[in-house]
Amino acid sequence: MKLFFGLDVTDTQVGMKVYKRKLLEDVLPRLLVKQFAFDIEMLAVSYHLGYRKIYESPVEIRLNMSSSSIIPTKMLPVIYNMLNDTVAVYYRLKILHYYDEASKRKWRFDPELNFRINTG
User: Fold this and answer.
1) Which of 40, 43, 52, 106 has a beta carbon 3.0–4.6 Å from 120's, enabling a disulfide?
2) Is 64 contained in some domain?
3) Residue 113 to residue 49: CA distance in whole angstroms
C-alpha cells in the first residue's frame, strides 16, 4: 500500500477503524468499492485528501487452519477480486483523479444522511 498509495500503514484490512465526522463527510461520498478493497479505498482517499494522521492498533489473530472451513482454492477468486479492486482504486486516484476536489461530479446534500453524496 505504501508503493501504490503512499500509505504508511502496516495492515489495511484487519481491525476496527475510527474516523472523525469531517473525514467521513469528505471521503464517503467519493467511494465506489463496496466489497473487497473498501478499507484500502477509504484509507487511500482519506490520505489523498490530506487526512494524514492514521493511527494503528495491533490486532492479533490466531488461525487454526487444521479445523478451518476455508479452502485455499476457494480463496483465489477473493484474492483476485481484492487485487482487481485495488488496481481500480489506484487507477481512479492516480490516472483519472476521480477523488480530487476539482473533478466534476454531481454532489447534493442528503438531509437523511446529513452530508453530501455523489449522484453522478
Assistant:
1) 106
2) no
3) 21
Q: What's the pLDDT score for residue 36?
A: 82
Which grid cell is 110?
A: 442528503
State which residues of the chain have pLDDT below 50.
none
* Domains identified in the chain, total number: 1
Beta-strand (E) ranges in the chain?
Answer: 107-110, 115-118
C-alpha cell of 84? 482487481
- Note down the domain range covering 13: 2-58+69-118
Nearest by Cα to 4 from 72, 90, 91, 109: 90
6 three-state secondary structure: coil
**How many angstroms separate the CA atoms of 68 and 117, rounded?**
40
**In the prediction, which pLDDT does 65 show?**
64
- Quote the cell numbers at residue 37: 478493497
